[in-house]
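Researcher: I'd like a structural prediction for the single chain below. Treat it as a standalone chain; there are no partners to consider.
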Amino acid sequence: MTIIICDSSLLILLSKLEMLDLLIEAFDDVIIPQAIYSESVTLGKILKKMDAFLIEKQVKDKIINLKQIKDIAEKEDLIKNFNIHDGEAEAIVLYIEEKADLLGTDDYKTLKVCKILEIKYFTTPMFIIRCFFNKKLSKDSTLLKFENLKEIGWYKENIIIDFMNKIEKEEV
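Model: Treating it as a single chain, here is the predicted structure.
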């Protein structure tokens, strides 16, 4: 059973790319902490963001599981020591508490923390590539997802182009 913890950045981008269902299909247990729910759903609904409503539906239907962290002190240490936000700190704590397999994030600071703490992670571009190689997306659909990610995401263009080149080179 593969358990993943997601932060807001990954959930929001995958929602905007219409890939949230693929995320849920790919992993046995998708979990978010309360602070991520507050960031991506509660705040998102106030801002009338469509992705907030999509994520909320998955949580209400218990397809994405919402969990509280236990170790508040660890959360505070992560915030203080690494200058990350509440949600990302809770996601890391929940990853540790749940003995999760992967942490899904697109947050630059959180990715640095993952490397330092040796947390296994994945990003939206990595997930798109995974879907392609697992034949969940066609070559054209995959390239289109990357084009859309260039528009809606915060990745540097050269990173997206590198991923697209990997897809272009594949014979399907």
